[in-house]
Amino acid sequence: MRLSSFALFFLTAGVYMSSECFHTEIIGGREVQPHSRPFMASIQYRGSHICGGVLIHPQWVLTAAHCYNWFPRGHSPTVVLGAHSLSKNEPTKQTFEIKKFIPFSRSPSGYSSHDIMLIKLHTAAELNKHVKLLQLRSKNYLRDGTKCQVTGWGATNPDQLKSSDTLQEVTVSIISRKRCNSQSYYNRNPVITRDMICAGDAKGQKDSCQGDSGGPLVCKGVFHAIVSGGLKCGIANKPGIYTLLTKKYQSWIKSKLAPSRAK
Protein backbone atom coordinates (compact mmCIF):
# COMPACT_ATOMS: atom_id res chain seq x y z
CA MET A 1 0.00 0.00 0.00
CA ARG A 2 1.32 3.41 -0.89
CA LEU A 3 1.76 5.83 1.97
CA SER A 4 0.63 8.65 -0.31
CA SER A 5 -2.67 6.86 -0.95
CA PHE A 6 -3.53 5.36 2.43
CA ALA A 7 -5.07 8.69 3.44
CA LEU A 8 -7.97 7.86 1.13
CA PHE A 9 -9.04 5.26 3.68
CA PHE A 10 -9.40 7.92 6.36
CA LEU A 11 -12.91 9.33 5.89
CA THR A 12 -13.59 11.25 9.10
CA ALA A 13 -11.76 12.07 12.31
CA GLY A 14 -13.68 9.34 14.10
CA VAL A 15 -12.95 6.56 11.63
CA TYR A 16 -9.68 4.66 11.92
CA MET A 17 -7.91 2.40 9.45
CA SER A 18 -7.51 -1.30 10.06
CA SER A 19 -4.28 -2.74 11.42
CA GLU A 20 -3.42 -3.80 7.87
CA CYS A 21 -2.73 -0.16 7.02
CA PHE A 22 0.36 1.91 7.55
CA HIS A 23 1.06 2.42 11.22
CA THR A 24 1.48 5.58 13.20
CA GLU A 25 0.89 4.75 16.93
CA ILE A 26 2.88 3.85 20.07
CA ILE A 27 3.07 0.11 20.83
CA GLY A 28 4.84 -1.25 23.92
CA GLY A 29 5.64 2.15 25.39
CA ARG A 30 4.65 3.99 28.54
CA GLU A 31 3.17 7.31 29.57
CA VAL A 32 5.71 10.11 29.86
CA GLN A 33 5.97 12.47 32.81
CA PRO A 34 3.32 15.14 32.10
CA HIS A 35 4.69 18.06 30.05
CA SER A 36 8.19 16.56 29.89
CA ARG A 37 8.07 16.72 26.06
CA PRO A 38 7.03 20.38 25.66
CA PHE A 39 7.83 20.39 21.93
CA MET A 40 5.00 17.97 21.10
CA ALA A 41 2.06 19.15 19.01
CA SER A 42 -1.31 17.47 18.53
CA ILE A 43 -2.87 18.17 15.14
CA GLN A 44 -6.62 17.82 15.53
CA TYR A 45 -9.82 17.85 13.52
CA ARG A 46 -13.04 18.72 15.34
CA GLY A 47 -11.34 18.04 18.65
CA SER A 48 -10.01 14.60 17.69
CA HIS A 49 -6.28 13.89 17.50
CA ILE A 50 -5.15 12.95 13.99
CA CYS A 51 -1.37 13.42 13.81
CA GLY A 52 1.57 14.42 15.92
CA GLY A 53 3.98 17.24 15.18
CA VAL A 54 7.02 19.03 16.54
CA LEU A 55 7.29 22.72 17.41
CA ILE A 56 10.53 23.90 15.79
CA HIS A 57 9.83 27.68 15.82
CA PRO A 58 7.23 29.71 17.77
CA GLN A 59 5.04 29.83 14.65
CA TRP A 60 6.01 26.60 12.87
CA VAL A 61 5.27 22.90 13.42
CA LEU A 62 6.98 20.07 11.53
CA THR A 63 4.90 16.99 10.67
CA ALA A 64 4.36 14.30 8.02
CA ALA A 65 3.03 15.44 4.64
CA HIS A 66 0.49 12.61 4.38
CA CYS A 67 -1.38 14.04 7.39
CA TYR A 68 -2.71 16.81 5.15
CA ASN A 69 -4.80 14.32 3.18
CA TRP A 70 -6.66 13.24 6.31
CA PHE A 71 -8.55 16.53 6.58
CA PRO A 72 -11.65 17.18 4.45
CA ARG A 73 -11.15 20.07 2.03
CA GLY A 74 -12.47 23.35 3.33
CA HIS A 75 -12.21 22.25 6.96
CA SER A 76 -9.03 23.40 8.65
CA PRO A 77 -7.59 21.43 11.56
CA THR A 78 -6.11 23.04 14.65
CA VAL A 79 -2.82 22.60 16.46
CA VAL A 80 -2.72 22.08 20.23
CA LEU A 81 0.51 22.72 22.15
CA GLY A 82 1.27 22.23 25.85
CA ALA A 83 -0.93 19.14 26.19
CA HIS A 84 -0.44 15.91 28.09
CA SER A 85 -4.02 14.63 28.29
CA LEU A 86 -6.03 15.29 25.14
CA SER A 87 -9.37 15.16 26.97
CA LYS A 88 -8.66 17.21 30.07
CA ASN A 89 -9.02 20.97 30.12
CA GLU A 90 -5.38 21.62 30.97
CA PRO A 91 -4.47 25.30 31.59
CA THR A 92 -1.12 24.68 29.86
CA LYS A 93 -2.76 24.11 26.46
CA GLN A 94 -2.46 26.59 23.62
CA THR A 95 -4.70 26.08 20.57
CA PHE A 96 -3.99 27.58 17.17
CA GLU A 97 -5.67 27.93 13.83
CA ILE A 98 -3.47 27.10 10.85
CA LYS A 99 -2.32 29.79 8.43
CA LYS A 100 -0.85 27.48 5.80
CA PHE A 101 0.53 24.04 5.01
CA ILE A 102 3.82 23.70 3.14
CA PRO A 103 4.66 20.14 2.04
CA PHE A 104 8.18 19.52 0.75
CA SER A 105 6.71 18.23 -2.51
CA ARG A 106 3.18 18.71 -3.80
CA SER A 107 3.48 15.73 -6.12
CA PRO A 108 5.35 13.04 -4.17
CA SER A 109 6.70 10.05 -6.06
CA GLY A 110 7.18 6.58 -4.67
CA TYR A 111 5.71 5.09 -1.53
CA SER A 112 6.67 7.53 1.17
CA SER A 113 8.86 9.93 -0.75
CA HIS A 114 9.30 13.35 0.86
CA ASP A 115 6.80 12.68 3.66
CA ILE A 116 7.51 15.93 5.47
CA MET A 117 5.51 19.14 5.84
CA LEU A 118 5.63 22.48 7.62
CA ILE A 119 2.57 24.01 9.28
CA LYS A 120 2.52 27.75 9.91
CA LEU A 121 0.39 28.71 12.89
CA HIS A 122 -1.89 31.73 12.60
CA THR A 123 -0.11 33.35 15.54
CA ALA A 124 3.13 32.55 17.36
CA ALA A 125 3.06 30.28 20.40
CA GLU A 126 3.95 31.63 23.82
CA LEU A 127 7.06 29.76 24.85
CA ASN A 128 7.22 28.66 28.48
CA LYS A 129 8.12 25.57 30.52
CA HIS A 130 5.18 23.69 28.97
CA VAL A 131 5.70 24.83 25.36
CA LYS A 132 9.25 24.70 24.01
CA LEU A 133 11.08 24.22 20.73
CA LEU A 134 12.92 21.12 19.60
CA GLN A 135 16.01 22.21 17.69
CA LEU A 136 17.05 20.78 14.32
CA ARG A 137 20.65 19.68 14.70
CA SER A 138 20.76 16.19 13.24
CA LYS A 139 23.98 15.05 11.57
CA ASN A 140 21.99 12.29 9.84
CA TYR A 141 24.25 9.35 10.62
CA LEU A 142 22.57 6.73 12.77
CA ARG A 143 24.39 3.51 13.55
CA ASP A 144 22.49 0.22 13.29
CA GLY A 145 21.15 -0.68 16.73
CA THR A 146 21.13 2.88 18.09
CA LYS A 147 18.42 3.29 20.73
CA CYS A 148 15.92 6.06 20.05
CA GLN A 149 12.68 7.32 21.51
CA VAL A 150 9.48 7.96 19.56
CA THR A 151 6.67 9.93 21.18
CA GLY A 152 2.98 10.35 20.42
CA TRP A 153 -0.70 10.06 21.29
CA GLY A 154 -1.28 7.11 18.95
CA ALA A 155 -3.07 3.92 20.01
CA THR A 156 -1.35 1.58 22.46
CA ASN A 157 -3.06 -1.60 21.26
CA PRO A 158 -2.72 -2.72 17.61
CA ASP A 159 -6.06 -4.54 17.89
CA GLN A 160 -7.90 -1.48 19.16
CA LEU A 161 -6.86 1.43 16.97
CA LYS A 162 -7.85 4.20 19.34
CA SER A 163 -5.65 7.17 20.20
CA SER A 164 -4.14 7.33 23.67
CA ASP A 165 -5.50 10.11 25.85
CA THR A 166 -2.08 10.74 27.40
CA LEU A 167 1.30 11.20 25.71
CA GLN A 168 3.24 7.94 25.32
CA GLU A 169 6.85 7.11 24.45
CA VAL A 170 8.69 3.94 23.45
CA THR A 171 12.34 3.07 22.86
CA VAL A 172 13.08 1.51 19.47
CA SER A 173 16.30 0.46 17.73
CA ILE A 174 17.62 1.73 14.40
CA ILE A 175 17.58 -0.90 11.66
CA SER A 176 20.10 -0.42 8.87
CA ARG A 177 18.79 0.67 5.47
CA LYS A 178 20.32 -2.44 3.90
CA ARG A 179 18.56 -4.78 6.32
CA CYS A 180 15.26 -2.92 6.08
CA ASN A 181 15.35 -3.23 2.27
CA SER A 182 16.25 -6.94 2.44
CA GLN A 183 13.92 -9.75 1.38
CA SER A 184 13.11 -10.69 4.97
CA TYR A 185 11.98 -7.13 5.79
CA TYR A 186 10.35 -4.77 3.27
CA ASN A 187 12.01 -6.33 0.22
CA ARG A 188 12.30 -2.84 -1.32
CA ASN A 189 8.52 -2.38 -1.17
CA PRO A 190 8.70 0.42 -0.28
CA VAL A 191 12.32 1.23 -1.05
CA ILE A 192 13.96 2.73 2.03
CA THR A 193 15.90 5.63 0.51
CA ARG A 194 18.65 7.80 1.98
CA ASP A 195 15.91 10.19 3.10
CA MET A 196 14.34 7.47 5.25
CA ILE A 197 15.28 5.25 8.18
CA CYS A 198 13.72 2.20 9.85
CA ALA A 199 13.40 1.66 13.59
CA GLY A 200 11.68 -1.03 15.61
CA ASP A 201 12.12 -3.99 17.89
CA ALA A 202 13.55 -7.48 17.26
CA LYS A 203 10.41 -9.07 18.69
CA GLY A 204 8.04 -6.54 17.18
CA GLN A 205 6.73 -5.51 20.57
CA LYS A 206 7.79 -1.86 20.41
CA ASP A 207 6.70 0.38 17.57
CA SER A 208 5.04 3.55 16.37
CA CYS A 209 1.63 3.29 14.71
CA GLN A 210 -1.62 5.06 13.82
CA GLY A 211 -1.95 8.49 15.42
CA ASP A 212 1.81 9.07 15.76
CA SER A 213 2.53 10.27 12.20
CA GLY A 214 4.62 13.45 12.25
CA GLY A 215 5.93 12.83 15.75
CA PRO A 216 9.67 12.89 16.54
CA LEU A 217 12.32 10.17 16.64
CA VAL A 218 14.95 11.37 19.12
CA CYS A 219 18.26 9.53 19.47
CA LYS A 220 20.68 10.43 22.27
CA GLY A 221 18.89 13.74 22.72
CA VAL A 222 19.03 14.69 19.03
CA PHE A 223 15.95 15.10 16.82
CA HIS A 224 16.72 12.84 13.84
CA ALA A 225 13.47 11.92 12.09
CA ILE A 226 9.67 12.04 12.03
CA VAL A 227 7.18 9.16 11.97
CA SER A 228 6.08 8.36 8.43
CA GLY A 229 4.64 4.85 8.05
CA GLY A 230 5.16 1.11 8.00
CA LEU A 231 3.04 -2.01 7.47
CA LYS A 232 0.75 -3.14 10.32
CA CYS A 233 1.68 -2.47 13.96
CA GLY A 234 4.31 -4.17 16.09
CA ILE A 235 5.48 -6.67 13.47
CA ALA A 236 9.14 -7.67 13.96
CA ASN A 237 10.19 -7.60 10.29
CA LYS A 238 7.96 -4.65 9.35
CA PRO A 239 9.42 -1.87 11.51
CA GLY A 240 8.42 1.77 11.55
CA ILE A 241 9.56 3.92 8.63
CA TYR A 242 10.70 7.46 9.40
CA THR A 243 11.54 10.53 7.32
CA LEU A 244 15.16 11.34 8.12
CA LEU A 245 16.00 15.00 8.70
CA THR A 246 18.73 15.10 6.07
CA LYS A 247 20.68 18.22 5.12
CA LYS A 248 18.31 18.61 2.17
CA TYR A 249 15.27 18.79 4.42
CA GLN A 250 16.97 20.94 7.03
CA SER A 251 18.00 23.46 4.36
CA TRP A 252 14.45 23.52 3.01
CA ILE A 253 13.04 24.09 6.50
CA LYS A 254 15.44 26.96 7.17
CA SER A 255 14.57 28.58 3.84
CA LYS A 256 10.86 28.52 4.65
CA LEU A 257 11.30 29.80 8.19
CA ALA A 258 13.70 32.60 7.22
CA PRO A 259 11.03 35.08 6.00
CA SER A 260 9.09 34.73 9.25
CA ARG A 261 12.09 35.96 11.21
CA ALA A 262 12.11 39.21 9.29
CA LYS A 263 8.44 39.92 10.00
TrEMBL record:
Keywords of the record: Disulfide bond, Hydrolase, Protease, Serine protease, Signal
InterPro entries (alphabetical): Peptidase_S1_PA, Peptidase_S1_PA_chymotrypsin, Peptidase_S1A, Trypsin_dom, TRYPSIN_HIS, TRYPSIN_SER
SMART domains reported for this sequence: Tryp_SPc
GO biological process: activation of membrane attack complex; complement activation, GZMK pathway; killing of cells of another organism; leukocyte chemotaxis involved in immune response; opsonization; positive regulation of inflammatory response; positive regulation of release of cytochrome c from mitochondria; zymogen activation
Organism from which the protein derives: Peromyscus maniculatus bairdii
An example Gene Ontology CC term for this record: symbiont cell surface
Full protein name: Granzyme K
Molecular function (Gene Ontology), one example: glycosaminoglycan binding
Signal peptide stretch: 1-21
Pfam hit, one: Trypsin
All copies of domain Peptidase S1, residue ranges: 26-258
